[in-house]
Design goal:
Elements lengths: L2 H15 L4 E10 L9 E4 L5 E3 L5 H11 L7 E7 L16 E9 L3 H14 L5 E6 L5 E5 L7 E3 L5 E6 L4 E5 L3 H12 L3 E5 L3 H5 L7 E3 L3 H6 L8 E5 L4 H11 L6 E4 L3 H13 L5 H5 L1 E2 L11 H16 L8
Parallel strand pairs: 10-11, 10-13, 11-12, 13-14, 14-15
Antiparallel strand pairs: 1-2, 1-5, 2-3, 4-5, 6-7, 6-9, 8-9
Length: 327
């Protein structure tokens, strides 16, 4: 899941909690080029205020215009954008020539809607992976347990039940501030990750302007070890070249369910770090094997931006289940 989707559900819950009706939109399927993948979400109020994204803008404009005109009064409705024949009254032709199917759910204030969104919020925050099933005829919504593997959205054979897989928003914990850390944070934000930077050094935090991410002014190892900091959709990277920060972060990272753990350094310094982690940290060979060091893809990177690109590309590779020799 993208961090933007968590923001969407948080806003939907806040509006519902203020007794306002909301319309929750979910991309069900895409054909051809599309800027947002199945499962992407947007929430809107009747006055046009909205959070989230479904496309590059044209789909949102059409939806909000029709919403303000009183459309979408049913509990559940599907709309197809693009293609030769739009479903649900769509008048939009996508510039890319593709098509986009969108599920639109009208959620009125009440305990049932709030409970549904609270369950969805808990899932996105990392408590448990679930599948959200929406009956496209009756509007009935249920949750079932999910293993977290497979396509984001599955439609039943008759296309009358949408199964939408939901899980934690991908989180990137950056241990320590550096020029590479800042570049990584920018890349990660563009990828839709939730970004958390940990550094106890006040002078380091005061020297940069960090927008759109969380800052924890503590030792990264302390934050990583704190309850709820890491879930299976978490990546942890240490990028300072300072063993006091990087080594301690790695010693705690291997005790988490993070899907990616990495630390910056040359091959020679990585060998020295591995020996320190064995001797001082008491890490086993299997724990050391979890750590990507040197971190990132071997792109011949030199500048901070190039190193950050190599790091984020490697994280995305692991997230997508690709081996290095398959690239």
């Amino acid at each position: 899941m993208q961090y933007l989707d968590l923001t969407v559900v948080e806003q939907a819950w806040a509006w519902l909690n203020r007794d306002e009706t909301v319309w929750l939109c979910t991309v069900l399927s895409t054909f051809g080029s599309s800027p947002r993948e199945p499962g992407a979400m947007l929430v809107a109020r009747a006055d046009g205020q909205h959070v989230g994204s479904l496309s590059g803008g044209c789909v949102e404009e059409d939806f909000l215009e029709r919403l303000s005109a009183g459309a979408f009064s049913q509990p559940v409705q599907c709309v197809r954008y693009g293609g030769q024949e739009g479903l649900g009254g769509s008048r939009v032709t996508l510039p890319c020539g593709g098509t986009l199917d969108v599920l639109i759910e009208r959620m009125a204030p009440g305990s049932d809607s709030l409970l549904h969104l609270e369950t969805l919020l808990a899932t996105l925050r990392g408590e448990q992976a679930l599948t959200r099933r929406v009956d496209l005829d009756s509007g009935e919504k249920t949750f079932v347990e999910d293993g977290g593997v497979g396509p984001r959205v599955v439609l039943s054979e008759a296309c009358r039940v949408a199964s939408i897989r939901v899980g934690p928003a991908v989180r990137l914990i950056i241990a320590g501030l550096s020029t590479v850390s800042i570049a990584c944070a920018e890349f990660a934000r563009q990828l839709g990750y939730e970004v958390i930077v940990c550094d106890p050094r006040e002078e380091a935090l005061n020297s940069v302007h960090l927008e759109g991410l969380s800052v924890e002014p503590v030792l990264p190892s302390i934050y990583i070890a704190s309850p709820g900091a890491c879930h299976p959709a978490t990546a942890i990277v240490a990028l300072t070249h300072d063993p006091r920060i990087d080594d301690l972060a790695m010693m705690e990272a291997v005790n988490t369910p993070a899907f990616y753990i990495g630390v910056m350094g040359s091959r020679q310094s990585s060998l020295a770090r591995a020996e320190r982690l064995r001797r001082t940290g008491g890490l086993s060979e299997s724990e050391i094997a979890r750590i990507n060091m040197p971190i990132g893809l071997a792109l011949g990177s030199k500048t901070p931006a190039e190193i950050a690109l190599a790091v984020m590309a490697d994280i995305l590779r692991v997230q997508r289940g690709k081996t290095r020799d398959a690239l």
